[in-house]
Amino acid sequence: MTTITITSFGTGHPDAPWSANPVVVDTKPLRNPPQDPAVRARMTQMTGLDRDVAFYVMTTPGAERLVEDALLAVYDRLVTAPDTDVDVHVSCVGGRHRSVAVSEELASRLRALDAVTADVQVVHRHIDQPILPRLSDRLRETHGRYWVVSHAETGINTRFSEKAVAQMTRQAPDTLADFFTAQFLQIHRAAHTDLPAPLAYSPQEAATMADTLRQLRALFGVPSRHADLADQLAAHADRAAAAGETWTWTKEVSV
Predict the structure, then answer these.
(1) pLDDT at position 254 over 80
(2) What are phi and psi of 224, to 5 degrees?
(3) The whole model's pTM is what?
(4) Phi, psi of 189, deg, nearest 5
(5) Which residues form the RapZ C-terminal domain (predicted)?
């Protein structure tokens, strides 16, 4: 029997799901309970599995269209390749509210369709993770600039503090500093530029950079914020390399 696996996750975590050709659903345009002062205190203690959170998310303007588009995309996969399993990746920032609620709604509608005989499974990858800092809080820590690291296959756009990346590269141990600088020369050159041209790395370059980041992470030794950042960037580069797609860095300025 064909299986439809719907995975909710947060792009603010490094271990996003990966598959060769997923249906990608981005729920970030929907209302986010942790960013709404009227419901934040109550709903941060809940998840998208709770009825109040699900109602809050699904009554956001655009939510219905988002689910309908995802439903059609999945059904199209089933029609064009009836014997092939379908992976659906549903993202928000933290992986606890919007992506969970939309995943559950999509699964419910798929199971209700007589034309869909596939086994529908739902996995919530980050539902038990702590609430992430609000985006506005994270942006203030960047002194106004942050890198947006992305690749098209997963639709993931992950923000990293420009200041944190610069500090990590400057504090690389001497034994690796020159090699690390050479690999990330473009990023070093753009460190003090508000809006440089996008930086694009081939899958092969992304694989090399992932290996370099892992070496750097090992030399940092004990867990630290620089080690965590190296881990996250390495995981992101791995996904780009595995997908055979360009790994892109752009910079944005907060307002």
Answers:
(1) no
(2) -155, 170
(3) 0.61
(4) -65, -30
(5) 3-127
What is the pLDDT confidence band of residue 140, given thresholds at 50, 70 and 90?
A: very low
Q: Could you tell me if 224 and 232 are in contact, meaning their C-beta atoms sit under 8 angstroms apart?
A: no
Rounded CA separation 121/3 (Å): 7
Between helix 162-170 and helix 225-243 the angle, nearest 10°, is: 100
Longest dimension (CA), the chain: 63
Instruction: Give dist(CA 180, CA 90) in Å, integer.
Output: 34
C-alpha distance from residue 227 to each of 108, 217, 232, 233 (Å): 40, 5, 9, 10
Q: How far is CA 20 from CA 23, 24, 85, 241, in A?
A: 10, 12, 11, 12
CB burial of 80-91 (b: ≥16 within 10 Å; e: otherwise) equals eeeeeebbbbbb
Check the CA dihedral 227-184-174-170 and report its sign: negative
What value, to the nearest 5°, has the Cα angle with vertex 123 and ends 138 and 85?
A: 120
The 3-state DSSP class for residue 88 equals strand
d(CA 42, CA 24): 29
Six-digit token string for 202: 């081939």
Structure tokens belonging to residue 255: 């307002």
Reply yes or no on whether the pLDDT at 211 is more than 60: yes
